[in-house]
C-alpha cells in the first residue's frame, strides 16, 4: 500500500515540504490542500515589487502549475475543516476527504484586525494574500492619503511603496519606536530616518481611536490625542495570529501556535506542524519559538521532508530575515533581543551599517543595513557554528567579511590541513 | 526569444527560453530547472541561485555590484572566477545563448 503524505497549507512551508519530498525521492502519494485560489506563491513581493506593479501575478508562483503534475503532487484547492486522527483523514469543505499516513499542518497565520469603531469601513485593509494585494493596488490607483497602522515590517514596506507612488503617508505605532519585535533600537532609528527623508510621517506612542468614513468608505482616522488624519486607504499591519484552530479542534496542543517538538512533531506521531503556525522546541534557543519568515517556513519544510525520508536530527536552523523598504535593505541573522553588547561595523558605502550583537562574549546576531556582503558573512559564520568576540570585532582595522571568510574556510578544511 | 542553457552537476544540459528583462533565476524556477533554488526571490539574501558562467559569455553579462561581489565569497559551493548569482543575470539580447553551470551545493 502506497504511503501518503498530506500537507495542509497555501504558502512557503507547504510548497517546500512537497517539493523537498520529491527531491528526496519520496515515491508515495503527495497531496497539498490549499485554501487560496492562487496556491503556493511567494508572499514577500506582495509588499514590494508586486505592489509597485513590477511583477505579474504568475511570476509570484514558486513553480508553474505544470510542476505539480510533472512531479505527481496533487494540488487541491479547498479548505480543511477537520482532522480525524483515528481514521487519519482530513475533511474538506467540499465534502471530500483526504486520507493520510503522515500529515503536515502548514496553515500559516492570519492578520490581526483593528477593533476600533469604523474598522470595517471600505478601504481598511490587511496585506497577506494576493487577493489583499490586488485590492490595495486598486485603491492605491486613486488614493491620495494612506494611513498605515503599525510600524512593523509590513507596515513600513507598504509605507515605502506608498510614498514612492506619490501618496501622503502617515504611520501610526503604539510603541515608542518602530520594528519593536525584531530589530534593535539603533537600527530601527536608522530605518526611520530614511523613511522620514522620503516624506513619511511617523507617529509613535499613538493608536487609532476610530476610523471615520462616508458612504461606507474610509475618509480619515482619529489617533490618540485627537488629531484627525485624512485617509483614502488604511493598511493594518499589527501582527499576525497563528492558524492553529484546526489542530486544536483535533485535540492537538496549541499555545500561540501548534506545539511541536524539536523534530517538528506534535504529540501525534503522524502529525507535524511547520511554518508560521508552529511553535517549536528550539534547541538553538532552549525555549519554544515561532518564527514568521520565509527562511523558517522553507527550512522547516525541508526538515520535515527529510525526516519523513528517514533523516535523523533536530531542527536547528539559524533564523534569518530581510526587509526591503524603499532604498533600505535590512537583513538580519540570529536574534538580538538578549544582547548585552553591540559593535557597529560601518559598511563601505554611505548609509550602510552593520550592527553585531553579542551575549556573554558570543555573536548572537547581525543586523545589516544596505550591506548584503556583511549579512552573507554573518549568516554563513553562524550557520557554521562559528563565533567572534566583541573585543576582536572592535579591534583597529578589523575586516569582518575577510575574517568571516577565512574562519569559514579554515572550519571547512579537511582535518589534515587545519 | 533568447535562450539560456543550464548544465547540471551530472553533466546534463537543459535549454530554456528567457524573455528580455527576466533573470536567469526566475526563468530557471519557472521552467522547473532543479538546482536553482532562489529562496529569497531575487533579493540577494539567500545565496541559493549560484551559477558558473561559461567563459564565452563573461564579457556580455551585467557588471557585478559590490554587494554581489562580497556575497559571492560565501557561497556553499566555493567561488570561482566565473561565479555569479543567477538572480542578478537579467537577460539581454547580448546574452542570448548563454551557458551556465549550476553550482552544487546551493545550501
Quick structural summary:
The complex is a heterodimer of chains A (418) and B (107). Chain A is of the alpha/beta class and 418 residues long. Chain A has helices at residues 12-23, 65-70, 130-140, 153-164, 185-197, 245-249, 294-308, 372-383, 390-394, 400-412, and strands at residues 4-8, 29-34, 73-77, 80-84, 89-92, 97-99, 102-105, 109-111, 124-125, 145-149, 168-172, 201-203, 208-214, 217-223, 228-230, 233-236, 240-242, 258-260, 271-273, 278-282, 287-289, 320-325, 328-334, 341-346, 353-359, 362-369.
Topology:
The complex is a heterodimer of chains A (418) and B (107).
Chain A (H helix, E strand, L loop, with lengths): L3 E5 L3 H12 L5 E6 L30 H6 L2 E5 L2 E5 L4 E4 L4 E3 L2 E4 L3 E3 L12 E2 L4 H11 L4 E5 L3 H12 L3 E5 L12 H13 L3 E3 L4 E7 L2 E7 L4 E3 L2 E4 L3 E3 L2 H5 L8 E3 L10 E3 L4 E5 L4 E3 L4 H15 L11 E6 L2 E7 L6 E6 L6 E7 L2 E8 L2 H12 L6 H5 L5 H13 L6
Parallel strand pairs in A: 1-2, 1-7, 2-3, 7-19, 9-16, 10-11, 10-16, 11-12, 18-20
Antiparallel strand pairs in A: 4-5, 5-6, 8-17, 13-14, 14-15, 20-21, 22-23, 23-26, 24-25, 25-26
Chain B lengths: L2 E5 L5 E5 L6 H7 L19 E4 L12 H6 L11 E3 L12 E5 L5
Parallel strand pairs in B: 1-5
Antiparallel strand pairs in B: 1-2, 3-4, 3-5
